[in-house]
């Protein structure tokens, strides 16, 4: 779900918390060695996300925040902030010339450049958390 988070709205915060969990606490964040990525360049988005990127040739930036049951992708458009909440069960990540995050019929592709390479450890951590989340629901066939 996509939210305009330029201004704090209690209902938006509540909806995001219900979808992907409340933010990690201070000690949990230390244990994970951080819960947010560095700023990355948004290279491309799906047509249904075009409204959250700059229409002119400005560079669009985004970052990812880990939550207990999903991730938040924060994208800045001028003075406006947009947040895309993605539960882990909907999250699909492709590593093709950068990284492409897909869910809910939408996608965001982050450019493969220096800022992306600085986030390699973060993406490794994200993939580990996603695998652990998926293993909870790993059903084995009987018979």
Describe what you observe in this structure:
The chain has 143 residues and is an alpha+beta fold. It has one domain: PH-domain like, CATH 2.30.29.30. The chain is 26% helix and 34% strand. The protein has 4 helices and 8 strands, in the order βααβββββββαα. An 8-stranded antiparallel beta sheet has the order 1-5-4-3-2-8-7-6, sandwiched between helices. The relative contact order is 0.19.
Write the layout of secondary structure elements.
Elements: E1 2-4, H1 10-20, H2 26-31, E2 40-45, E3 60-67, E4 70-77, E5 80-87, E6 92-94, E7 98-103, E8 106-111, H3 114-117, H4 120-135
Measured as a percent range, the helix fraction is 25-40%
In this structure, how is the largest beta sheet organized?
8 strands, antiparallel
How would you name the CATH homologous superfamily?
Answer: Pleckstrin-homology domain (PH domain)/Phosphotyrosine-binding domain (PTB)
Sheet-strand content, in percent, reads: 25-35%
Number of strands: 8
Shape: globular
**Average pLDDT:** 90
Radius of gyration: 16 Å
Looking at the overall shape, the CATH architecture is: Roll
Count of alpha/pi helices = 4
Contiguous uncertain segments of 5+ residues: none
CATH class: Mainly Beta
CATH fold name, please?
A: PH-domain like
Order of helices and strands: EHHEEEEEEEHH
Coarse structural class: alpha+beta
């Amino acid at each position: 779900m996509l939210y305009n988070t330029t201004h704090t709205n209690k209902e938006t915060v509540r909806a995001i918390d219900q979808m992907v969990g409340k933010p990690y606490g201070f000690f949990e964040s230390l244990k994970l060695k951080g819960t947010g990525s560095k700023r990355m360049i948004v290279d491309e988005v799906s047509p249904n996300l075009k409204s959250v990127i700059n229409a002119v040739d400005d560079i669009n930036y985004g970052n990812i925040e880990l939550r207990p049951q999903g991730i938040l992708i924060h994208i800045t458009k001028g003075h406006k902030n947009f947040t895309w909440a993605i539960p882990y069960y909907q999250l699909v990540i492709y590593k093709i010339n950068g990284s492409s995050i897909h869910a809910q019929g939408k996608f965001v592709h982050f450019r493969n450049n220096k800022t992306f390479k600085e986030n390699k450890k973060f993406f490794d951590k994200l993939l580990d958390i996603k695998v652990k989340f998926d293993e909870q629901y790993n059903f084995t066939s009987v018979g």
